[in-house]
Design brief:
Low-confidence stretches: none
Structural class: mainly alpha
Number of helices: 7
Radius of gyration: 21 Å
Strand order of the largest sheet: 1-3-2
Mean pLDDT: 91
Largest sheet: 3 strands, antiparallel
Distance between the termini: 32 Å
């Protein structure tokens, strides 16, 4: 059965490579290239909400990690780094910016006087509650170009792929 979709950017690149290097299988680029382009587009669309609240993606992630912790909405910097998958150095810069903005505070840990605890301030909690709700509406808008069945199938495929890439079993 012949595919009659119009050639998109990735298909054109694949066709050019097939012409120039017919000895190389370019079929993986059909998935990887489109995922890469889609990730770039999604990032642009997600930043619209972050920008609306004066946040970068990293600051949004930190505030979300603190909010998800539940009351009293605090975590150690190392724990925040693990929850947002960044280095502790990058985390320090994010926390510094959020602290200057009055969205988080830092204090010494009760358990270890050398350790620090980062906590959401009331304005930080108010901001992330609003920003997260807008973020979820934005994600819904982005997924609404797919049917509900397509969304379920895509989520399952991505979960399986990611699990295998992470060295685990498929969910």
């Amino acid at each position: 059965m012949e595919d009659r979709r119009p050639l998109d950017h990735v298909a054109r690149v694949q066709a050019e490579w097939r012409r120039e290097r017919p000895d190389v299988d370019t079929s993986p680029h059909g998935v990887i290239g489109r995922l890469h382009r889609l990730a770039d587009r999604l990032t642009e669309e997600l930043r619209l909400v972050y920008d609306r609240y004066g946040l970068g993606e990293g600051e949004f992630d930190v505030l979300c990690a603190l909010r998800r912790a539940g009351a009293p909405y605090e975590r150690a910097p190392g724990e925040l780094a693990a929850h947002t998958m960044v280095t502790t150095g990058a985390m320090t810069k994010r926390i510094d910016r959020l602290e200057r903005a009055g969205l988080v505070t830092r204090r010494r840990s009760d358990d270890d006087q050398r350790g620090r605890i980062v906590a959401l301030t009331d304005p930080g909690r108010d901001l992330i509650d609003q920003a997260f709700a807008d973020h979820m509406r934005n994600e819904r808008r982005l997924l609404d170009v797919l049917t509900p069945a397509e969304t379920v199938s895509l989520e399952a495929l991505l979960a399986t792929w990611l699990s295998r890439m992470d060295g685990g079993e498929a969910p």
